[in-house]
Each structure stands twice: as structure tokens, then as C-alpha cells.
Specification:
This protein is an alpha/beta fold and 203 residues long. It contains eight helices and ten strands. 45% of the residues lie in helices and 20% in strands. Helix 1 runs parallel beside helix 2 and helix 1 packs parallel to helix 7.
């Protein structure tokens, strides 16, 4: 399994540096940044906080959209302090850290992406809808929002400790899953048409 961290719209150099360091701590394969709001001076600060993971920052790939950053990803996990998010017509429930632990223990998704949001506002509903899963870390109801680097540390530690084990089953290729979803949608459309025909027939 390959693990990538996708940081959308990073705004603070300290967090960026700390996340680069976490990528080294927990053997993340790649750091990807989507539209970073970081100045040249900020990059220097980020390198200081990355410590011995400065090369992770230097190799980080920069994208102009989340879709492009996830193009080769088989399973993407959005992160949010909100436990239920409506995207389009779908209400999405966030899994908790124990569910992530179980999933990573049992499944090899191929390329797994942990998607982190902006320090100021997190991920938008539209960005979350582009990911396969939503994860929320339990915290006090009085202050549910974790610092993005702290959240990353918890998530990456879970993945790191579980990915070293042998996986019982391998997640189907993303193209196969897309064909399955398309087939299911076609079946639903046919079923709806047949039910409408049945309703319109005289009794």
C-alpha cells in the first residue's frame, strides 16, 4: 500500500512543516499540496519546522485542483470536525478512528490518500464529496476542531501501525469499482422505468 497526504490550501508554514515531518515519521510515500497559500518566506519557516524532513517539502508535488491530486488514488479519506456532511443529495456520515483502524488492518487499497483541509475553514462540502470516505476524530463537544497537524499525527500513526501487517484482501481497482457503480446506476434506471410502465398500465 502506498500512502499519500494531500493538504488542500495550506495557509500556515508551521503546520506545513510539521506535516512534512509527520510524513517522515510515519513513512508516508508522498506529500501533495493543492493551491498552497504559502509565500517564499513561509517556505523557509516550513523547512525549519520540518526539521530532518526538509526533503519531503522539496519533493512535494503541487496541484491546482483536488481532482488532479487524487487522479491515481484508489481510496481517498477526507477529514473534518463535522460528523455529518451533505454533499449534493447525499448525507455522508463520518467514520471514527476505530473504523479507520479496522479498515486499514483488513484492506490494501493500493494508493491511499489522507486529505487534509485548510487551517481556517477545513475542506468544503464539494471537496469532501470528491473523496471516497469521511473521517472525524472524536474530541470534546466544547471544542471539536483539532489543529490540522495534530489530526494528521493521529491518523497517520494509525495507518503506519497497521500497514506493516499483511493484508487479508485487496481493494478492487478504481476502474472496476467505477464500472460496478455505473452498472448499479443503470440497473436502478431500468427498474424505475419498469415501475413507471407498470403504474401506467390500465388495470
Amino acid at each position: 500500500m502506498r500512502v499519500v497526504v494531500v493538504f488542500v490550501g495550506p495557509e500556515k508554514p508551521i503546520n506545513l512543516g510539521m506535516i512534512a515531518r509527520l510524513c517522515r515519521n510515519f513513512e508516508v510515500d508522498e506529500l501533495r499540496l493543492v493551491k498552497p497559500e504559502i509565500t517564499n518566506e513561509d517556505w523557509k519557516i516550513a523547512e525549519i519546522f520540518a526539521s530532518r524532513a526538509k526533503d519531503v517539502l522539496e519533493r512535494a508535488k503541487i496541484y491546482d485542483s483536488l481532482e488532479k491530486a487524487l487522479k491515481d488514488v484508489n481510496l481517498s479519506i477526507a477529514t473534518s470536525a463535522v460528523r455529518r456532511i451533505r454533499g449534493g443529495n447525499i448525507m455522508r456520515r463520518a467514520m471514527d478512528i476505530s473504523e479507520l483502524e479496522e479498515m486499514v488492518s483488513e484492506t490494501d487499497p493500493g494508493v491511499l490518500a489522507v486529505v487534509l483541509g485548510r487551517e481556517s475553514s477545513g475542506l468544503t462540502n464539494e471537496e469532501i464529496s470528491k473523496c471516497n470516505l469521511l473521517l472525524s476524530i472524536d474530541a470534546s463537544e466544547g471544542y471539536r476542531t483539532l489543529n490540522v497537524a495534530c489530526a494528521a499525527a493521529i491518523i497517520l500513526h494509525v495507518i503506519f501501525t497497521k500497514r506493516r501487517k499483511r493484508f487479508a484482501r485487496k481493494l478492487a481497482d478504481i476502474k472496476i469499482r467505477e464500472r460496478i457503480i455505473k452498472s448499479f446506476e443503470d440497473i436502478v434506471k431500468i427498474a424505475i422505468k419498469l415501475s413507471l410502465i407498470h403504474i401506467s398500465e390500465p388495470t
